[in-house]
Each structure stands twice: as C-alpha cells, then as structure tokens.
Amino acid sequence: MDKFRMMFQFLQSNQESFMNGICGIMALASAQMYSSFEFTCPCLPEYNFAYGIGILLVPPIWFFMLGFVLNNNVSMLAEEWRRPIGKRRKDPTILRYMFCSITQRSMIAPAVWISVTLMDGKSFLCAFSINLDVQQFGNGSNHGLSEVALQRLLAKIPCKHIFDGEAVISREAASRYIRCISQAVGWIFLLLMTLLAFMVRAIRPCFTQAAFLKTKYWSHYIDIERKMFDETCTEHAKTFAKVCIQQYFESVSGEMHRFHGQHDDKDSDDEDDKRKSDEDKLLGIRAQDDMNKVLWNWHTCKPSLNLKKAEAQNGDATGHVEICMSGYTQQTQSPAKKPWVAYYSKV
C-alpha cells in the first residue's frame, strides 16, 4: 500500500506528466480497440453509408469526450469560469489557455482512431461502395439490372461471402480502388494533423513570450491553490473530528479520569503539546457555522492576489476589517483594545 500511495502522490505532484500519460494510454487503447473490433458492414444501400461514417466518426467523439472527463482540469476550468468575481478578477487568457490545453490532449485518441480506420479502409469501403462507377470496373454492361438492383449489388461489395455479381463488376478491383482512396485520405489527415501541431509549436514563440509565461504561471497557480485548499480542508476536518471526539469522550468519562487519579507530569506535558498542535491545525475555526462561512466566502469571494504583511491583515488604524459575505463587502468593527496601566509600589 505504501508503494501505491507514493505512486499516487507522485502522479498528483506531476499532473501534467500524468495527463500526458493518460492521453498516450487512450491513444494506444483506441488502436487496440479497433484491432479487436469486428467490423460488420450491413451491405444494404440504406445503411452502408450511415454505418461506415458512424464507425469513422462516433468513436472519436466518444474518445474526445472521455478525454475531457478524465482530465481533472475540466472541473477547475468550469469553477474558474462560473465563480463570482469577488476580490479577484477573472482573466480570459488563462481560461483560453486551460481550455486549449485540455482540448489538445483530448484530440490525441480521436486522431489515432481516425488514422487507423482510414488506413484499414473497411469503413470507407462500406460507406462509398454504392457510389462506384460500374462502367469503370465492370465489363461494360449491367446485364439488364435495374437501378435498385444495381445499388444492392454495389452495396454487397464489402461482404465477399454474399457478393454474387462478378459477372457485372469486379469486386477485387473495386475494393482495392476504394481502399487506396481511404489510405490516401488517411495520410492526408496525418499530414494535416502533424502540420497543425508544428504550426502551433512554431508560431507560439513568435508572440509575446512574457504573456505566455504569465498565462502558464497563473494557470498552474490556480491548480496548486485548489489542491492546497483541499489539503487544508482535509487536514482541518481530521483535526476537527479528532478534537470533537476527544471532547466527547472526556465529557462522558470524566468520572473515570478522577477515579484513576491524575496523570504524571510527562503525560500531561505531551497532551498539552498535542492539544497545542491541534489548536494550530484548527486555525481558530471551531464551529460549524464558522466553517460554512469560510467555505462560502472562498467560493463567492476569493482573496485578492496581493500578499500583505501580517499587521496589515489584522485591519487598518481605525479598527475596521473587511469581510466579503455573499457577494458584497461588509465592514465590521474590530474590538477596541483596552488601555493597560501599570502601577509600581516602592514598598
């Protein structure tokens, strides 16, 4: 279990490498799924085109959506897009950068599926077999076949076990012709995808590199901030539950503690240290309503990205503290400090 925990922590800390690995696995899975997929053309004029184009386009759409589902940044992007502005404005360039990054990774598996499908040529043959020119691959006559019968004969070209029109058209020649066209389209598709990726890589440095670095930095910051907030909430929830359970048992078993006598000084010191550490982890939030307000304020009014000194965070000179509640700013009067006077006696 320790090895799996260390691996999971490593993947969390290297999310970009993890997502690249997921995209590679999906690409290999798409190729493996196609190799194990049994292609069965219906060999009917009414369904050939729909089945062939469906096999070519529907699985890539599913892989594309699956890439969005498996990407953890989708929820972060939606949260950043829908959150109220509060004290922190939203940068559209960061949202575009995050969306483009998710889209690029999600397009890898669909591109592999389309490429493999076109190279194989079965779906292309099934979809466009009825559009063949009989005069080009036949013997010059249709042997008195009507238009409907000829369409049904052409639709049977992908199915060699039921094709019975060798006298009208050469099935092998027609199949080779369509497969060659499919492979040509596949190579053109690969060339266009590679050219597009090259253009994205080559054109990006031509723009302002500082703007790109700024966008990349703040997108990473949003991701890290979300992770650390979740970790802090988890740690606070564990400490809150621990202190709540301890107080419950201490209140119930108070008589038993008095019966067994006092603990020694060493145990009491250790317990005091543990209590102090627990108090530090609670961060001063010890009530359910207070924690609900903290979580609500974090969503509706995230703090501004302007770090200040600890003295400035406690309030201004007049004793006012700004608290963002439910989308508006509310000023509360901080308790005034009482003056202290020291008296010294000469006796």
Automatic annotation (TrEMBL):
GO molecular function: monoatomic cation channel activity
Biological process annotations from GO: ATP export
Domain of life, per lineage: Eukaryota
GO CC terms in record: plasma membrane
Keywords in alphabetical order: Ion channel, Ion transport, Membrane, Transmembrane, Transmembrane helix, Transport
Residues that span the membrane, as ranges: 21-37, 49-74, 184-203
Subcellular localization, as worded in the UniProt entry: Membrane
InterPro entries xref list: CALHM
Keyword Transmembrane helix (UniProt): yes
Region Disordered, annotated ranges: 259-279
Membrane topology qualifier: Multi-pass membrane protein
Pfam family membership, one: Ca_hom_mod
Record-stated family: Belongs to the CALHM family.
Protein's name according to its UniProt entry: Calcium homeostasis modulator 1
Provenance organism: Scleropages formosus
Gene responsible for this protein: CALHM1
